Amino acid sequence: MKRRLFLLVITLAVALSPCRAQSATSTAASPTATSQTPPAQAQRPQPPPPVVSPDVRPDGSVTFRFRDPNAKEVGLNLEGTAQPQPMQKDDQGVWSVTTQPLAPDYYGYTFVADGVSLVDPSNTLMKTNLLFLSNMVHVPGSPPPDWESTDVPHGVVHHYFYHSAVVGDDRDYFVYTPPGYDPKARTTYPVFYLQHGYSDGADGWTQVGRANFILDNLIAQDKVKPMLIVMSLGYGAPEVLHRGPGAFRDTSLIQRNMDRFGEALISEVIPQVEKNYRVKADREDRALAGLSMGGAESLYVGLNHLDEFAWIGAFSAGGLGDNYATEFPHLDSSVNSQLHLLWIACGTDDRLIEPNRKFREWLTSKGVQHTDIETPGMHTWMVWRRNLIAFAPLLFQKQTN
């Protein structure tokens, strides 16, 4: 019995000895393993703080900032100014400039870094355009100007797409319906066909011009008759856009652009609008106006189709040429009984002021009654928003201007 107990103790001792040795070996090796752990990686440099731009101050001045440490020269190209404003660089590589107090409005702008036009990466408010991408800065006013979104009833902007058999492409147009418009009601409305300028899309008057907000506010103030606004694509010959501004030197192309625009408007857009909306389908209740290229198109199409339009306007019209007798062969004093309003406006600092004055002088020589409007400003949206605010209340009134 004692012999069995002795053998059992010996057996257990032998069985446990490798575990103890392994434990001792692991314990002894652990300091060596710890000493071989690589040192902690150095912390990565912190990214620079975000750039705040644009920074609108209470007095209406705006600070613009742009980070470009490697640039040698950076300037601010602000809508409504003739030359880029130089910017100064700090020790962090951020360029900045602060403007004088600006009048309440929306201003387009870009940066020019070493001769290259660049958008502001710190600003998500973009100025839509088919050729020239830029940002916008909003300088608010008190009380809010008519282009602001205010606490009044708002209309609705509808977006349509269709295939143009006249032009041979797929295109779009927008329709603004005023607050309270009911497609099932018996009320019918006049229609204002409002055209964009060169390089803009059909959305130019809503995205940048803010025409829908302007009409909302004017209607709430009882300054205008409730109306629909139709904003269609102004390129009767799309190649005029593809060629860039130099296309205006090609007189045959410009003529084709205006001819096909007018045909598409009268034979395609107007019938669609009058089919889908409760509108008055007669010339007495149709107006046509536009800015820049759209202003020239409005004059050309409107004055040559007085059976379609009784109210015509042009804001900084450009692209007519100067052979007026050929472009308007039937225009004389006899049209005064048909025209309820011919309203021609341009900014005094606009490069197109002289062509507009020349055209108005020709109208006077032909005995055509018209309203001449000259306001301060360049070829900018700040002028055209105010043109729309002044022009819209004159439409569809019983007394002609």
Based on the model shown, name its key terms.
18 strands, alpha/beta, 2 domains, Immunoglobulin-like, 401 residues, disordered N terminus, 9 helices, 6-stranded antiparallel sheet, 29% helix, Rossmann fold, 8-stranded mixed sheet, globular
Topology, element by element:
Blueprint: H1 2-35, E1 55-56, E2 62-67, E3 74-78, E4 85-86, E5 88-89, E6 94-98, E7 105-113, E8 116-118, E9 126-127, E10 134-139, E11 156-164, E12 169-177, E13 191-195, H2 204-207, H3 211-220, E14 228-232, H4 239-242, H5 251-276, E15 286-291, H6 293-303, E16 311-315, H7 324-327, E17 341-347, H8 353-365, E18 371-375, H9 381-391
Parallel strand pairs: 13-14, 13-15, 15-16, 16-17, 17-18
Antiparallel strand pairs: 1-2, 2-6, 3-4, 3-7, 5-6, 7-8, 7-10, 9-10, 11-12, 12-14
Helix pairs in contact: 5-6
* Strand/helix succession: HEEEEEEEEEEEEEHHEHHEHEHEHEH
Shape: globular
Measured between the Cα atoms of the first and last residue, the distance is: 134 Å
- By CATH, the architecture of the largest domain is named 3-Layer(aba) Sandwich
Query: What structural category arises from helix and sheet content?
Result: alpha/beta
According to CATH, the fold-level topology of the largest domain is Rossmann fold
Average pLDDT, all residues: 91
Strand order of the largest sheet: 11-12-14-13-15-16-17-18
CATH class of the largest domain: Alpha Beta
Strand content: 15-25%
For this structure, what is the CATH homologous superfamily of the largest domain? Answer: Alpha/Beta hydrolase fold, catalytic domain
Regions with little confidence, pLDDT below 50 for 5+ residues: 1-35
Q: What kind of sheet is the major sheet?
A: 8 strands, mixed
Number of helices: 9
